[in-house]
Amino acid sequence: MSTLDRLLGGGFAPGSVVALVTPAAAQVDPLLAAFVADRDVCYLSTERPAGELRRQYDTARGRFDVGRTSADDLLAAPEAALDSAAQELVVVDPVNALEGTGDEARYRAFLDAVKRRVDETGGIALLHCVEMGSPDLRDRTLYRADAVCHLVQTVDATAVTTSLVVPKHRGGRPLLDPVKLDLTDRVRVDTSRDI
């Protein structure tokens, strides 16, 4: 991740809300693991059970608070879910269920609460946006995010190619040229150039 931080001109600033947009079939777990490594993390999942996430991502190098929650619970009382949030990183994985409610007022209030929390703590929020259908409020997520990271995956008969583009990075340098990633058991950034 240090290579990505360097390419982004220092990484994401404290108080940033980052939208990570990924294909549903992408090998995204190593990327999520790299985000949560060595940090105090509050991981809110709307899909996967807490035990499964703990086994996969809890490195015991920081506090790892994980919970499975519903879109309704997060939209009804975002502050309650975020009050106990670790100071370094809040992950909502995926945000699709929240975006899919179509309740723009409550979703906007949720995004505002997330932004307030990371501003107060100097942390970062990661909103995992999975490309499944077209959630009603996806554009709201991308607009509100301080940075948008788009994982692009190409599958052909000979290879799976994964690259990252950061078309939006408020207060920083976007990555407009795709950066090739090798996502197997960990994240490797391909810094060579195809000629």
UniProtKB/TrEMBL annotation:
Concerning InterPro entries, the annotation shows: DUF7125, P-loop_NTPase
A Pfam family cross-referenced in the UniProt record is: DUF7125
Highest taxon above the source species: Archaea
Official protein name in the record: RAD55 family ATPase
Source organism of the structure: Halomarina ordinaria
